[in-house]
Structure to design on (868 residues):
């Protein structure tokens, strides 16, 4: 799993870059958006930034699971879209809220949940349906990852995390749904410096911290 | 003289639907422009799928904060009383029925209010994003779109041929030519762009339109 | 629904007292614990406090749903336990985490979820079971209330809420799962005084605020 | 001289199982006492179902903070690095497998490790609280209890007759007489209270006990 939401905010850009250098292949990547690649990223943030496009360019990914593999409002030039059109990567598309809930479901040790989102659309294809109180629901199953790469604002040395503005997005829920969670943070602070009332991710979920000062 | 509303004017008309105190989510693209047209004297709380409630306008600062963006990747400004949360909580709010109005773009809307707004031929890798969740969860779905494709093919159709977002979810369609309400009886044409007649708009619409008793020109 | 967890922390004692005076009958109360009544409450907090016992003493409740109707470690003298033994109130007992998740399920507009908690116990009685990935799960359905009475620390005048220490407990989730949520707060502050990063309950969930300074 | 361990000593013995850095949840009653016996040099993070991680000892302050309590309604003290969250998040943590050890009280434990710890005759209105969630979610379940009822009826049984909390969940049983490990082969008697013999303890146990090769006296 890779945190963030769409563009720069909340994306662990340094961890993604590191993963591209580390070179692991045949990855299954779970992320909200497939990234646009460095060139198109300049349309979203001046100067651009490295996103998941890097991993698709490198051919490191065999499957992508997310709600926005490619942006319809952008030219069809993102590394994922090109890889997909070339038959090099498989895509599983799912509604954003269903994705969020499947992640929470995996994090919370549950077996699945019923949702009305996607009823009557291609989302229900191959999925079990059930009528509850006269309404149709689709059964959705949990998502859980081997690794979560996430971006937070500050960590204490125990691993408690806080986030900044909309860079929070998918990061706190992905942090809870992986065997090993690696957090890229702007600032690492001593234990006791984060207010116990405002910690968003408790340290039991965080296994590695990489401080990358802005 | 026949006038087609431009995107800003469509957004302005859509924003007139925002009642005082309503919680509104704006979809990708044209709907985002509504943020700049809140009717005077009304308070509207904008919710964004990534995890934010109560933000302000699109940022016009020279130094933008790229960690303060709406779900369309646009930097926005803070407002007092706003708050941040994670995307899981955001979709609890959306599915849980706390969004009064969502404004979405569309490729097609059917006469029953079915919505197709995320997939189109030649772009198999695009995804539905939060559209399905919003269409299923919001109390009222407003669609803003151009009345036809560039080639003149109607977008208000009998049955959607593009992949569906949700069935029977749209309440109001606002295009460059018309304001159309989706009712149990069918599509009711409520307002026309300046200079346009009912037959002319019907002619560019695949689904049958019912002229409202008080059919009028769009007031802007 | 009535917030809190067990004893005093997070319990909307003034709203409970007000409800006892208002006199509504045939209530279904969803709360983690059934309360111990004013007398026994002195064992939990010097001086005692009003808890849900008040509503059972008044005969206002026809059904209680919770994980700890009565405490096994206390004498069988709580108003709920006495009412139950006298056949005056119905009880539905459920595991605490299942209760929390059923509330979140209701708040999130979902149809139900599968959990392993309670498999092989009386909790599974009358419930649908399903095998997912070779493990047995129980289907649990959402909880949603007409009213939620909750306790928060501070509210702004829009209704954004923050909590204090373990008085947070069930309050934030119950706040999201009711038609009308009424919050009892220590302090009401102007809009803008609560940090947007630390607001726990966004104002869309809060319909009434009662300020009761300590 | 035969010694029965008192509650404090049982808690002390249980706390010896807490490895360095482990996340531990303490159940209602006797298990709560473990908080005061963390082995020297080890860091233990106590989690509490209501929504707290990393708290300290039971509060001995004159002015206690009754909004800072563990799940057994006891005021506790803060520690650096602790945090608060809601009960929903707390049980995600519990069911999600992030509790290394839970110490629970019990009425009965069976030879297969079935646990009965919440309902007893004459008290139909008590509930299971968080016990079922903890028993299902924690990596290791330790039970602390008296070896028999006040009347001498064994609590370590062939099959539980009291309502179950969860099946096959208990890993270790610590009583006033013995430390017993639940294994695939059955209940292995690992340690005895001072002065007690294997036959004597077996005699007070309904389930069959297997003496460990290194059966020894409980070291305190």
């Amino acid at each position: 799993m890779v945190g963030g939401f769409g563009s720069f905010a909340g994306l662990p850009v340094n961890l993604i870059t590191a993963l591209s250098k580390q070179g692991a292949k045949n990855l299954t990547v779970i992320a909200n958006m497939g990234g646009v690649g460095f060139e198109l990223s300049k349309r979203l943030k001046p100067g651009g930034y490295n996103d998941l496009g890097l991993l698709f360019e490198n051919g490191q990914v065999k499957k992508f699971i997310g709600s926005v593999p490619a942006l319809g409002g952008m030219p069809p030039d993102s590394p994922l879209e090109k890889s997909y059109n070339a038959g090099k990567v498989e895509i599983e598309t799912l509604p954003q809220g269903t994705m969020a809930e499947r992640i929470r479901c995996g994090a919370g040790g549950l077996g699945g949940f019923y949702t009305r989102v996607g009823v009557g659309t291609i989302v229900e294809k191959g999925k079990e349906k059930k009528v509850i109180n006269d309404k149709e629901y689709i059964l959705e199953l949990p998502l859980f990852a081997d690794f979560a790469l996430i971006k937070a604002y500050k960590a204490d040395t125990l691993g408690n995390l806080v986030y900044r503005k909309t860079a929070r997005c998918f990061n706190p829920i992905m942090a809870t749904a992986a065997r090993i969670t690696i957090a890229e943070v702007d600032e690492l602070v001593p234990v006791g410096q984060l207010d116990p009332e405002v910690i968003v991710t408790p340290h039991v979920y965080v296994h590695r911290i990489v401080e990358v000062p802005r | 003289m026949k006038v087609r509303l431009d995107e800003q004017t469509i957004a302005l008309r859509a924003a007139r639907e925002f009642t005082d105190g309503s919680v509104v989510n704006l979809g990708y693209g044209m709907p985002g422009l509504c943020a700049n047209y809140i009717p005077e004297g009304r308070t509207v709380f904008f919710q964004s799928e990534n995890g934010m409630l109560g933000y302000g306008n699109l940022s016009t600062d020279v130094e933008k904060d790229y960690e303060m963006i709406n779900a369309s990747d646009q930097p926005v400004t803070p407002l007092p009383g706003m708050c941040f949360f994670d995307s899981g909580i955001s979709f609890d709010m959306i599915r849980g029925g706390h969004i009064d109005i969502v404004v979405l773009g569309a490729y097609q809307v059917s006469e029953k209010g079915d919505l197709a707004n995320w997939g189109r031929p030649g772009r198999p890798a695009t995804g539905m994003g939060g559209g399905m969740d919003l269409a299923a969860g919001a109390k009222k779905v407003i669609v803003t779109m151009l009345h036809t494709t560039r080639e003149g093919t109607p977008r208000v159709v009998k049955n959607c041929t593009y992949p569906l977002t949700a069935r029977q979810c749209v309440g109001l369609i606002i295009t460059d030519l018309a304001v159309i309400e989706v009712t149990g009886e069918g599509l009711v044409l409520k307002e026309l762009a300046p200079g346009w007649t009912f037959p002319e708009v019907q002619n560019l619409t695949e689904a049958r339109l019912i002229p409202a008793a008080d059919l009028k020109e769009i007031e802007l």
About this structure: Chain B has four helices and 13 strands.
